Give the backbone structure.
Amino acid sequence: MRIDILAVIPELLDSPLNNSIIKRAQESKTAEIYVHNLRDYSDDEKYRRIDDYSYSAGAGMVLKVEPVFKAITHLKSQRTYDEIIYTSPDGEQFNQKSANQLSTLKNILILCGHYKGIDQRIRDHLITREISIGDYVLTGGELAAAVMTDSIVRLLPGGMGDETSALTDSFQDGLLAPPVYTRPAEFNGWKVPDVLLSGNDAAIEEWKMDQAFARTKKLRPDLLNDE
């Protein structure tokens, strides 16, 4: 898989994309991730300006249509993208189902939102999907792009050391994950549930499912209502 990210502040992506699972996925060629500085496509050679005032009243700047169009057009001339995503607070809510679906694609382009947004003409004519990672506003879409990239890449074959691990993550089956324990079996008088020490795989799996359902019902009942 290849992910291209168009960013106003590419430095914000340095650490998230160059550590842990994402780093290993790139080293193993499981994923190719390229960050492009949107200012490289500015027509303003001196100041590399990419924003301007909005025609509508109100404070805040808007990403100009020209540099964004130029950047996306250039990247599209090199490959076909399955999705061109814009990170936006008013996009569809990103969730595990979204990550699963996007992980099956070959080429993804993510445009990081900034300022008060981008010229609507880009959204109307070039963007294929708008995604939000939550009902709040960030300084820029770089952090949202990092979150989505991490969630997608860890699902790729070879992305994780144990490929079955992602299958037991929260939300994969619509439930929160059950509690987990490790050695020692008793600490400070706090004991691991007996069933986990029983060696009875069937009983353990039943316990895990019961716990996952109970935790979801208590902490995230909305997930059960979505069924």
